[in-house]
Amino acid sequence: EKKITKEKIVILTCYDYSTAKILNESSLDALLIGDSLAMTMHGFKDTVMATLLMMELHTAAVSRGAPSKFIISDLPFLSYRQSVSRSVIAAQKLMQAGAQAIKLEGAAGNLSLIAYLVESGIPVMGHIGLTPQFIHSLGGYKVQGKTPAQAERLKQDALALEQAGCFAIVLECVPSLLAKEITASLKIATIGIGAGVDTDGQVLVIQDLLGLNLDFKPKFVNHFLDGSQLFLKAVNQYSHSVKYKEFPRYEHSYPT
Ligand code: KIV
């Protein structure tokens, strides 16, 4: 509907209950429990390290905190590449943990599974372009679809995902013109991250939005808050006030 009315769809990652409670009050359209949580929440160097158990636990926490939001959860690395039955069980676990849709990466080899999941009542979001679960094949976090052949392949993948039944597709790190062309070619929504201004919506990692990840700032990230500095300032104020006996005060105590 929003694609037709040209209203942007806004999605943010979320991984925990307290943040989900705040985001439940926001104007966001959906929350994504991205497998990026392997990096942002668990400190691994890539999303290959995300497991189904991690995804289940974080999905359940977010769904408890944000009952009014549409919740999408990532099927982690290889959880949908072993057999149809194992893939269905993986999707079932995420849905029963509180997701209302799942996301998986890549088109090749996934199309019949997507059709099967959709027929089974599981809305599926696709993800093409820079697909971080393929980091070891891609050889790094690089813009995808720069050559005419790669661009053509991404266009075909997007159409195939739509045909298989996906309700939306994440386009990650692709040239803006290509993202615009793919968006125009589809009836379903495209959700961009590093894909320019013409996709039907945007998704961002919450640590990037809040300025909490100082390790790395890709070009497509905007810090909407200087979160690290604010956080550190509050923690140092607390530390200072305890050391200098300014906290706790009488009003923070139980006298009897
Ligand atoms: O895992 C994730 O956070 C994602 C988004 C960056 C699209 O897949």
Spatial ordering of strands, largest sheet: 1-2-3-4-5-6-7-8
Shape: globular
Cα end-to-end separation: 60 Å
Query: Kindly state the mean pLDDT as a whole number?
Result: 97
User: How many DSSP H or I helices?
Assistant: 11
Structural class: alpha/beta
Order of helices and strands: HEHEHHEHEHEHHEHEEHH
Q: What ligand molecules are bound, each kind once? A: 3-methyl-2-oxobutanoic acid
Please compute the radius of gyration using only Cα atoms: 20 Å
What about the largest sheet?
8 strands, parallel, barrel
Low-confidence stretches: none
In a few lines, what is going on in this structure?
By secondary structure, this protein is α/β, with parallel strands linked by helices.
Task: Explain this structure.
There is one protein chain. With 256 residues, this protein is of the alpha/beta class. It is 40% helix and 14% strand. It has eleven helices and eight strands. It has helices at 2-5, 17-23, 37-40, 52-65, 84-96, 111-119, 135-138, 148-164, 176-185, 206-209, 227-243; strands spanning 9-13, 30-33, 70-74, 101-103, 124-129, 168-172, 189-193, 201-204. An eight-stranded parallel β-barrel has the order 1-2-3-4-5-6-7-8, surrounded by five helices. Helix 2 packs across helix 4 (52-65) and helix 8 (148-164) packs parallel to helix 9. The protein is globular, with a radius of gyration of 20 Å. The chain starts with a helix and ends in a 13-residue tail after the last helix. The model has no long low-confidence stretch (mean pLDDT 97). 3-methyl-2-oxobutanoic acid binds at residues 13, 32, 34-36, 74, 170, 172, 193, 203, 205.
